[in-house]
Amino acid sequence: MKKKPATTADLDALPETQVGEIINGELHVSPLLKPLDSFFASYFLVELIQFFDKRMRGAGGWLIVRKAEVGLGGDILVPDLLGWRRERAPRISEPDPIIPTPDWVGEVLTPETELLDRELKLPLYERAGIPHVWFIERESRLLELFLLKAGRYERRAISLDAEPVRIEPFEALTLDCSYLWEQLD
Fold first, then answer.
1. What is the residue-wise DSSP string for 14-83?
2. Which end of the chain is less packed: N or C, by CB atoms within 10 Å?
3. What's the pLDDT tens digit per position in 14-43?
């Protein structure tokens, strides 16, 4: 007997302690980030929002959010972090805004989500034409940048453990993770 394709009702039925995504018609369920990983993700979220959101006297130009459902074709994904250039950003004040494909996605890799992020979600991000994807790894203090060129991702590994870094598409911001590591050590 053929398995029934997952629907948004399946997503709505999940408890708040789980994140559901529909990929290739199948429901994939992950736990929420653990407190350490949530703090890790929040560090990047706050740094980016403070620098790039005009309303916070930053450089402007981006809307950055955490954990929003994005439809990519028939798939529904929930990246850990995502952003749109301001001119393409959804109007989040609307009750049910149409969410365009993001210009940037950030995934915090954990043992529970790494396979899903790498094997299933990254190819969908590439197919959807998302120009920049970050895979951020707390344990290794590494950021993998996937930059879309000619329809394919080029991968670059960037250490977050040493000197401050500038990373596309947010190279106007110097990310200094020393505070982060002080809090996590």
1. S-TTEEEEEETTEEEEEEPPPHHHHHHHHHHHHHHHHHH-GGGTS---EEEEES--EEETTEEE--SEEE
2. N
3. 999 999 999 999 999 999 999 999 999 999
